[in-house]
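Database export, one record per block. Field names are fixed; values are copied verbatim from the stored entry.
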Amino acid sequence: MNLDQNLPMMLAAPAAVGAQAAPPEQIGLRQFRVSKRESQATFWARFGVTQSSGSRFETGLGVPPPVAILIRLYLNGRLNDGDLLD
């Protein structure tokens, strides 16, 4: 299973991540980012990832386990922007 493409589909997202964001369990990381209307730089910076690496993750490169954990926690509503950007 390719984590970068299937990560949102593997998660249940009980808490809403964003008012206009599509449910992440139904889409991939790129589509989720786009549904939040965020640039790659903005979206990936919250996870400590450069825009360049985020772009690679969105197009097929495997997401490193520490980043995948942060993404899962974020998508499940256990972490928010304040937690990640402080």
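Remark 1: The two ends are 32 Å apart (CA to CA).
Remark 2: The helical segments are 3-10, 29-35, 40-45, 51-58, 65-75, 81-85.
End of record.
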